UniProtKB/TrEMBL annotation:
Protein's UniProt name: Uncharacterized protein
Organism listed in the record: marine sediment metagenome
Length: 92
């Protein structure tokens, strides 16, 4: 099985190093969807990160810029981006 754990957050990533230990014993990928523009990469656990810039670029690379605003910023609906990512990358 190809599993992606999606973590949307509008908070700083200070506590995620500890939280990420929950996934160490499982063969899963972790996608963090954040809102903080200048994130210190040392505070992000290993995995995928899509902040504001990264999501904008993702839509642009696919010619989908006009749909970028369908997913509200600083809102739990950002998980929708994670679902788009999971679908495109064939996660189960």
């Amino acid at each position: 099985m190809n599993i992606l754990v999606i973590i949307p957050t509008i908070r700083k990533f200070d506590g995620f190093k500890e939280y990420s230990k929950c996934f160490e014993n499982y063969d899963v990928d972790v996608l963090i969807i954040g809102e903080i523009e200048n994130t210190n990469t040392k505070t992000i656990p290993e995995g995928l990160f899509y902040g504001v810039r990264e999501r904008k670029e993702w839509f642009k690379q696919r010619g989908l810029e006009k749909y970028e605003d369908l997913i509200p910023k600083k809102h739990h609906a950002e998980i929708s981006f994670g679902l788009l990512y999971a679908l495109e990358n064939r996660y189960d």
